[in-house]
Amino acid sequence: MEQNHETPPITHLSSTQPISSEDRRRLIVAILIAVLLLVLIVVAAYFLLTAETSTTSKIRDVFIIFMALESLVIGAALFILMIQLAILINLLQNEIKPILHSTNDTVNTLRGTVTFLSDNLVEPVIKLNEYLAGFKRLIDLLKPGKR
């Protein structure tokens, strides 16, 4: 009743892999976009605060803009977290589960092998040693001389 399950190849992720030029370009573009957005926020806040309206409405407008930007950042973070969660679930279903199944099959096979060896090899050898020790003791008792 042994089932043969093929496991997918295991890919090792190493943190020591060099960053490719494509990844560097993406990282640089992402940093530039973040810096540009920060500069735009500062410039917008400056113009809103220097506009000729009452102080309360200026602070309110700036606060509303910052809250909207914060909600955008939180939404992006939640989207990224959902993608990471989907990747984790995929990893668990398609890689970890077959590895655990294969390990369980191996342990069951090993358990059967140990039981077989115990019943058919170890137990008879121990019984033979018992008989030989008893026979040796009988010979020692029947020997004339040393007692």
Anisotropy-based shape: rod-shaped
Beta-strand content bin: under 5%
Q: Which bin fits the share of residues in helices?
A: over 70%
Number of strands: 0
Average pLDDT score:
83
Ordered list of secondary-structure elements with their pairings:
Blueprint: H1 21-50, H2 55-142
Helix pairs in contact: 1-2
Gist of the model:
The chain contains two helices and no strands.
Task: Give short descriptive properties of this protein.
single chain, 147 residues, mainly alpha, 2 helices
Describe this structure in words.
By secondary structure, the chain is an all-alpha fold. It has a domain at about 55-140. Helix content is about 80%, strand content about 0%. The chain has two helices and no strands. It has helices spanning about 20-50, 55-140. Helix 1 (about 20-50) runs antiparallel to helix 2.
